[in-house]
Amino acid sequence: MKIAYMYATPDVIHDKVTAIRGDMAPVLNLIRETGYDGVELLVADPARIDRAELRRAVADSGLDLPAICTGEVYGQDKLSFADPAPEIRQQARDRMHAAMDLAAEYGAMVNIGRLRGRYVEGVARQQTEDWIAEAIRAALDRTPGVPILLEPVNHEYANCLMTTGAAVKFVRDLALDNLGLMLDAAHILIEGEDVAEACALAGDLFWHFHITDSDRLPVGDGMWDIAAIMAAVRASGFNRYTTVETFQIPDASHSIQASWQAWRASGA
After folding, report:
1. Cα(233)–Cα(225) distance, rounded to whole angstroms?
2. What pTM, to 2 d.p., does this model score?
3. How far from 34 is each of 4, 10, 20, 27, CA to CA, in Å?
4. Smallest Cα–Cα separation from 237: which of 187, 210, 197, 200?
């Protein structure tokens, strides 16, 4: 199993994110020097990223780029596929298409977490789910070679597709090529699910994993049994990328080092 660390690209200006910040080249070099195999990008407006600078930084660091996380498209700019306003839904699709274009340059996947949106009063639940499905189909039709990862998101941040079971059903019902699942330890545990059961339920759709500790603390600094979590993930047969997604507490230097050490100690 390989491990990546989350990096917030310069278009992300939200005050508090679960990723390391800073100039591309030195940050990516730090990630590599610490021992990580890859970097995952946390983006808000991918069209604003300096592609040439990013390409140089990734190449010079020698890191893989396995995935692009779209969480701050919603977290920072409140755009989603299920917004009642059609112009907002279109802006969300445009951001997704830009993320897919970026991912295509690296053979990366793109996740859909909060970007999918929420059930809102006055809009039928089926309509909300249809809007989400339509946006996913449009993204895959436009860029069919880029895999999409639907992420179950817990009730503190979402109100639809919160559990592994709900996300699995949604993905299997769509039956689209290159649509799978990303599981996140925090969302699994906060929803009261068992990690081993969630991994088994996801089955062959389980393509990517996020690891953190309780309260999104650096891995190993919280109350969760990281070794048990990673043992359950390994036992499922998962052998793809795991990305560390934590708050940089008390700072990025500590978070990146502590998380690396705790992940290694877990036997992953």
Report:
1. 13
2. 0.96
3. 11, 22, 13, 11
4. 200
The total number of structural domains that make up the chain: 1
**∠ Cα 14 112 137 (to 5°):** 135
Cis amide leading into 66 (omega within 30): no
pLDDT tens per residue across all 268 residues of the chain: 999 999 999 999 988 899 999 999 999 999 999 999 999 999 999 999 999 999 999 999 999 999 999 999 999 999 999 999 999 999 999 999 999 999 999 999 999 999 999 999 999 999 999 999 999 999 999 999 999 999 999 999 999 999 999 999 999 999 999 999 999 999 999 999 999 999 999 999 999 999 999 999 999 999 999 999 999 999 999 999 999 999 999 999 999 999 999 999 988 7
- The CATH number given to whatever domain includes residue 168 is 3.20.20.150
Reference 75, options 117, 37, 106; nearest CA is 117
Enclosing H/E stretch for 182:
strand 179-184
- Helix or strand or coil: residue 42? strand
Range of the domain at 211: 2-265
